Amino acid sequence: MNTDIMSRPTVLDRIGMALAGVRDWLDDRGKGAWVAAIILGFVACWPAGLAILGYTIWSKRMFSCRHRHHRHPDRFARFGERFGSAPFPPTGNAAFDAYREETLKRLEDEHREFVDFLQKLREAKDKAEFDQFMQGRNSAPPAEPQQ
């Protein structure tokens, strides 16, 4: 059997890749682009608009801002690979670039400290709840065996 035929994408694969590209393009532009796509879909052919509306509701793209950034969590890392080690290209102003790098590093450190604080807070809350449970369990009278 010819392996070239088996490795070629089918028509459905190509359609799926095209639709994924359109979805990614709309995600990059935000909710306004999705609303425009829904309106254009209704103007062109109402079932298409209804399908797009159903998809945006089903995928929670209209009610959440996570999808836009969730899709490429490492996009700034890839952006930085193109322009050097910094996640943003240099502006040509050395003082501003140094300030920006220092500020971003400080914000990353503060974020890390805040996440650590939240983790310790959760652990303390869990410990307090567990201690309360154990105290209630130890102070409860033992159940009498039934005869």
From TrEMBL:
Keywords: Membrane, Transmembrane, Transmembrane helix. The chain crosses the membrane at residues 33-58. It comes from the Bacteria. The lineage of its organism: Bacteria, Pseudomonadati, Pseudomonadota, Alphaproteobacteria, Rhodobacterales. It comes from Paracoccus limosus. This is DUF2852 domain-containing protein.
